[in-house]
Amino acid sequence: MSKILPPELDDRLSRGDGPFVLDVRPREAYQRYHIDGSHNVPVYGDLRRGDDDALRRRLEEIPDDEPVVTVCKAGVVARKATSVLEDEGYDATTLAGGIRGWKGYENETIGYRLKSLLWRVV
């Protein structure tokens, strides 16, 4: 399963070459903060509990003719979403670090810089 780092995603979005960004977090979390242009399909709790069908029931909201990047709080549940999408034939990847990683990237935090070094190695 592949992942994309925040600067890579930002670069693709800035060029207009962006994938479909699927944010699976609860609606309230999405409304508080999200990646510009992302789309919210709030199945975080369902996926966390192991209910993969919650996402499958909403596939009509996700285009199958372009790459998809999944986003959650820290990346763990998004990996489950990526796995479901791959099983369904989508070209899907996970945003490394989730929305926390994205915020760290935007704010250039030291924590983000350290994590990004690890992501590049692992």
Give a written overview of the molecule.
This protein is α/β, with parallel strands linked by helices and 122 residues long. The chain has a single domain (3-121), classed as Rhodanese-like domain (Oxidized Rhodanese, domain 1, 3-Layer(aba) Sandwich), CATH 3.40.250. Helix content is 48%, strand content 13%. The protein has 7 helices and 5 strands. Strands 1-5-4-2-3 form a 5-stranded parallel β-sheet. Strand 4, helix 5 (76-87) and strand 5 form a beta-alpha-beta unit. The longest helix is centred in the C-terminal third of the chain and has 12 residues, at 76-87. The model has no long low-confidence stretch (mean pLDDT 92).
Supply database-style keywords.
122 residues; 7 helices; globular; 13% strand; five-stranded parallel sheet; alpha/beta
Distance between the termini: 13 Å
Number of beta strands: 5
Q: State the share of residues found in helices, binned by percent.
A: 40-55%
Mean pLDDT: 92
Instruction: Please tell me the total number of domains.
Output: 1
Low-confidence stretches: none
CATH class: Alpha Beta
Indicate the CATH topology: Oxidized Rhodanese, domain 1
By CATH, the superfamily comes out as: Rhodanese-like domain
- Treating each run of at least 4 consecutive H or I residues as one helix, how many helices? 7
- The percentage of residues in β strands lies in 5-15%
> Helix-strand pattern, N to C?
EHEHEHHEHEHH
Radius of gyration over all CA atoms, rounded: 13 Å
Concise account of the structure shown:
This protein has 122 residues and is of the alpha/beta class.
